[in-house]
Amino acid sequence: PDGKKKAYVHLTQEIMRLIIERENARFGKDFQTADQLRTQLTDMGVTLHDKTNTWKAADGRSGQIPKWAELQAGQTPEELAVKQEPGDEPAGDDPDALPIRQLVKEREQARAAKDFARSDAIREELKAMGVELFDKEKLWRAASGLRGCIIGYSSAGPLDMEITTLVAQREKARQSSDWDMADMIRNELKNHGVQIYDKDKVWRSTE
């Protein structure tokens, strides 16, 4: 539908507006504002990859972070939004991550039911797919570079223990400037109804 497409384009423009503001702040060495804008974008489900000058949203849309020359040329968010990766509709989650997430969840449910034979079989299945599980850290990593959280022990939603472990892992990632990991954890928790408030150093479940 046309309205849906308009809303999609409008959101891309809003993302570009915030990215441009952040780039201007970075070039002006106003790192506090740049960090606030990064947080604002993260809250919208947008992950920034400064090394590759790209961004990716939780709904699958992605694009380029504008170069300084483009900013100096006075390009508007509307013009830059048009240049972003084409696609009429959000592409959804990373397709490669979906089967992994499903198996990780199934394994957690098998562990909760104390069905260790099933849990071990799924671990082996994931291993054959090149996926390594880190139960203590509540994280998984694929050979392709994909990463995700281990959540799903309880069908009622994330356990406090899962959340506190992941919040601690995210803090660790932020301290070592691994922003991709920090954003991934924040986004996965958000998808499970958990909001992190960095300023207050608290998390709240909306479930």
TrEMBL record:
GO terms for cellular component: cytoplasm. Signal peptide: none annotated. It comes from the Eukaryota. One of its GO terms (molecular function) is cysteine-tRNA ligase activity. InterPro entries: Cys-tRNA/MSH_ligase, CysS_C, tRNAsynth_Ia_anticodon-bd. This is Cysteinyl-tRNA ligase anticodon binding domain-containing protein. GO terms for biological process: cysteinyl-tRNA aminoacylation. Coiled coil: none annotated. Residues 102-131, 159-201 form the Cysteinyl-tRNA ligase anticodon binding domain.
